[in-house]
Amino acid sequence: MKQPNRNISLVMFAGALMTIIGAFSPLLDVIHLKVISYADIGKPQLYALIACAVLAPMLDVVKSRKGAFVAVLGVWGALCWPLIRWQLHLEREHGFWGEVEKHVTDPLEEAGEHIAERLFLRIDDFEWGGYVFLGGVVLMTIAALMGLRKAK
């Protein structure tokens, strides 16, 4: 009866694939001016998100369920990093360079600075890629939790 473990791996793989595809797909409609993807606004976090999304199914296949769960937590951490940074008051450098950065910051980056907050509060602004992205992250989380339950 190896079927349940295989199903968990398939759900994890499908969630990771949906997350990666959704990250590069149209995600949000910003004030009806431009449709942006997560790749447009979350460059540093994008690399961590993709790495964790690729790592989670690989760890799941080699039966490292706890490692897959940690990788899924990494996906959530990368997704929520702008909000965490804002909560910890790490948003910008103070002094001269902080003022320079404030004046030359890309408006697209400014519009997407609170992407994690908007993912859950403003679902009506989603494009199709937003639903794929969020669905993939949720599927990965469910598979990781099911895998942890099986590991015990």
UniProtKB/TrEMBL annotation:
<feature type="transmembrane region" description="Helical">
    <location>
        <begin position="45"/>
        <end position="62"/>
    </location>
</feature>
<keyword id="KW-0472">Membrane</keyword>
<protein>
    <submittedName>
        <fullName>Uncharacterized protein</fullName>
    </submittedName>
</protein>
<keyword id="KW-0812">Transmembrane</keyword>
<feature type="transmembrane region" description="Helical">
    <location>
        <begin position="69"/>
        <end position="88"/>
    </location>
</feature>
<feature type="transmembrane region" description="Helical">
    <location>
        <begin position="128"/>
        <end position="148"/>
    </location>
</feature>
<keyword id="KW-1133">Transmembrane helix</keyword>
<feature type="transmembrane region" description="Helical">
    <location>
        <begin position="7"/>
        <end position="25"/>
    </location>
</feature>
